[in-house]
Amino acid sequence: MVTNQSAAEAKQRNVEKMGEALGAQYSLLWQEVVLLHRNWEQYVVLFGTKPSRIELLNQSAPYFFRMLQDDLWDVTLLHIARLTDPPKTGNKENLTILSFQTLIDDAKTKEKLAALLAIVKDKTEFCRDWRNRYIAHNDLDIALERSANPLADASRLKVKEALKAIADVMNAVDFQYFHSETRFDLGGALGGAMTLLYALYRGKKLQDECVRRLEAGEFNEDDLDPSEL
């Protein structure tokens, strides 16, 4: 997949090569999978890389960053579940990678996709359990800790495996029509989590200097909380 195109240009290219139904859905799903990987990367940068980063976040705004950690986790599992839902829920159609099998005619590609989608279903099942019984609905037995069937085990490793399974399906379709693939796990967002960490680190150093001046009786107006915030 060529990544220096606009979304509209990429969709037109895909529709011309894949046909209207597959090309349109693939284009939307490609954008969704890119966003999913990019947002997950923000989570990992903040909460899954170094203990020193966790310490910095806790020193800066512990309540806020715990809220952000929990919300990013839930949103990621919800996003994965949506992308791997059945093609239909009742009479309503879903935008999901599971639709690819019915939109592609080539027998060898359908066979390959069937195997890859079986892996997807297995690797993402825990996300649907969390979505169905905790994120989208608040299961009473789970809430009261009286359930004999606890939530499915979930971890950063399981999310990583789920993302790889989804990317493998997307790239199988991409390769069939364009003999190319996308490295969804590469590249960070400009103005993202690393930018925030650098700002927090510099702010922490300035705060430490402020405390040192106060303790030394060297207070100045710059040590006051800024009124413009």
Ordered list of secondary-structure elements with their pairings:
Elements: H1 7-18, H2 20-47, H3 51-60, H4 62-83, E1 88-89, E2 92-93, H5 100-103, H6 107-135, H7 140-143, H8 156-178, H9 193-215
Antiparallel strand pairs: 1-2
Helix pairs in contact: 1-2, 2-4, 2-8, 3-4, 3-9, 4-6, 6-8
In short:
This protein has 9 helices and 2 strands, in the order ααααββααααα. By secondary structure, the protein is mainly α.
Walkthrough of the structure:
It is built from nine helices and two strands. It has helices at 7-18, 20-47, 51-60, 62-83, 100-103, 107-135, 140-143, 156-178, 193-215, and strands at residues 88-89, 92-93. With 229 residues, it is mainly α. α4 crosses α6. It folds into two domains: 7-186, no CATH class; 190-229.
